[in-house]
Amino acid sequence: MSMIIGNGSSEPTATSKKTSQSNGDAIRALNFGNVSTQVSFNDGDKEGYYKVRPKALKPSDHNPRPDWVINDSWLVKHVGIDMQDIFESNMDLNCLVQIKEEVVDGKSIEIVIYPEFEQLLNSPDIAQKKEYEILVNLAKSIKEVGQIQPIEIESNLENSTLVVLEGHLRRLACILGRIPYIKTIRNEGLHNLSRKEKIGRQITENSMRTNISVYGNYLLASDEINESKKITVRELSAKLKINRDLASALIKFISNHENYHQCILDALKAGNLSSNNLIKVVAINRKDRQEDFVNKLLKKNNLGLPGHSPKKVSRGTDGRKRSVASLQIKTTANCIQAGNKLLKCIPELKKYSSISEVTTVDEMNNLLKNLGTFLLEITNGDK
Question: Closest by alpha carbon to 175, among 37, 50, 55?
Answer without folding.
Answer: 55
